[in-house]
Amino acid sequence: MTMSGIIRTGIGGWTFDPWEGSFYPEKLPKKRQLEFASRELTAIEVNGTYYSSQKPETFAKWAAEVPDHFVFSLKASRYCTNRKVLAEAGPSIEKFLGQGLAELGPHLGPILWQFMGTKKFEPEDFEAFLTLLPSSLSGLPLRHVVEPRHESFCTPEFVELLAKYRVAAVCADHADYPMFADVTADFVYARLQKGSDDVPTCYPPDDVARWGERLKAYAHGDVAADLPLNAPERRTERMPRDVFAFFITGGKVNAPNGARLLQQVVG
Predict the structure, then answer these.
(1) 186-197: per-residue pLDDT in tens?
(2) d(CA 61, CA 197)
């Protein structure tokens, strides 16, 4: 068994006009942007799947354009999570998973289930939702990560529930949303959202270095010692874990630079 999991860093999507001529070379055709981005970074979080479905041919095309080590994290459809009763999300979840995700093959990374900031923690209903998340799809193992954005989720009960189903929670570095630094799955998923367009590396280099140390701790099976836990008394199994970290939202103009620097920091 290896002593460390794989750390992948990336950005949200790959189409953004300000990246043309800064991240992307001058005159690089748009149709080659994914090819370029996937060789500079190691993961991309796809936001478009939150708003609309894709065709199987689209997923197959994405898979064909990226190198072997590269993965896509997909944000699940809003119709799965933006509902009063989560236990009733079954048909929407099946529709989302059945649109052709399996065409990504080994390039399929974690699936992100994001909830509205007004959605409160209702233990029984949330557990019913977790039971709807399959462990595999057409023979591919699935990794699930949830992003609750209401403070009512900041309880040991929520952490224990995730651990029961081996689902991760987003370690969100955000000005308003809660952070879940507790480890509840065989991987860790961070969304770094406090960047600035005025900082060439999205986050200041010292902050990037600090996050690098945290990610390396997670990859080695530890927890980040300087991040608050919602279940501090809980013991976490020490094992190598894959880690995913995305520069999202804040500082988007320079997000690729942040991701590249972070990848260098974690080696």
Answers:
(1) 999 999 999 999
(2) 31
The two tokens of residue 52 are 């609309």
Domain parsing of the chain, residue ranges: 7-266
Enumerate residues 6+ apart whose C-beta is below 8 A from 14: 33, 34, 37, 38, 44
Tokens of 230: 């919602």
Tokens 């590249």 belong to 260
In the block, residue with structure tokens 């189903």: 165
Please state, for a pLDDT cut of 90, what percent of the chain lies above it.
96
pLDDT at position 2 is 54
Pairing of strands 187-192, 171-173: parallel
CA distance 74 to 62: 12
C-alpha dihedral, 35 to 38 to 41 to 42, nearest 10°: -170
User: pTM (2 decimals)?
Assistant: 0.96
pLDDT of the residue at 1:
45
Q: Which CATH class is domain 7-266?
A: alpha beta
C-alpha dihedral sign at 16, 80, 176, 181? negative
